[in-house]
Amino acid sequence: MLDGKKVLFSGMQATGTLTLGNYLGALKNWVTISDEYECFYSVVDMHSITIRQDPSELRKRARSLLTLYIAAGIDPEKNCIYYQSHVSAHAELAWILNCYTYMGELNRMTQFKDKAQKHADNINAGLFTYPVLMAADILLFQSDVVPVGIDQMQHLEITRDIAQRFNGIYGDVFTVPEIYLGKAGAKIMSLQEPEKKMSKSDENPNASIYLMDDTDSIIRKFKRAVTDSEAQIVYRDEQPGIKNLIDIYCAAAGKTPEETVKEFEGKGYGEFKSAVGETVAGILKPVQDKYQELVKDKSYIDAIIKNNAQKANYFASKTLRKVQRKIGFPDKIR
Ligand code: TRP
User: Whole-model pTM?
Assistant: First the structure.
């Protein structure tokens, strides 16, 4: 609890170009729930280096992502938007928690197995202990809730296990966080292979809508979206392409699948795809415009970065000091 509000923490990596999936599945919800909680939204650049990054590219993308948080509607005066690497307590707590996490637990992480397979030439220790850094992120702020996608569920569970283990030894040090799986939990699939999740790293640009795509490209990509030959707009697993388009339309227009099916009853796929394309372009346009406006205001963004890093540091150090004292590190002499 902070000022009578529950604390919420989440983060995103600044790798790849954000897609409509990231926006509808995460960012848009972050904005909606931000009124209700005391929110910390981090650009988790320390996680990013578990995969080799080009330094200037990483710096650029991190700033761009932070700017996008604001462009999407998160108020940086009310919420703490900051770079993970600006708060050294993340690294310090992660080290400590490493000593309370078992190899066996980390060995079970499916994301580690996937990433190790994908990056077989660089299976570094950081990739292995990635979930511990994530636990540190969350526990540093005594977070009550953490909105994440299903793919991060295992990391949330290990975070809870670490917190409970630590509390079991030292008393109530950490708030044990709850996972927050948004309402619709919009999971957006690829436009070309609707059985696959829409991904920043997809090599086919027609498979994903990027947040910065212009209106024409968005409409064109939806027109080319893979569907089926059933010629009916119904919401069922047997028509994954159409189902995905309905999900996207619902998330973008704030409608339910039933309403959508009714709205397009008897209409052709062409007309439906155009409607989805236009609706999506319509919701992304204001975000894009705001982003372009913010990018020009360097000193404003710099001030946000500075002030929020200070705020995050303040809260993070409080928890870190408490932990250090509990485990027996000597007090600093001031
Ligand atoms: N691992 C998360 C992802 O890739 C990002 C992340 C890092 C995160 N630290 C976090 C998410 C803490 C929620 C809370 O999506």
Answer: 0.93
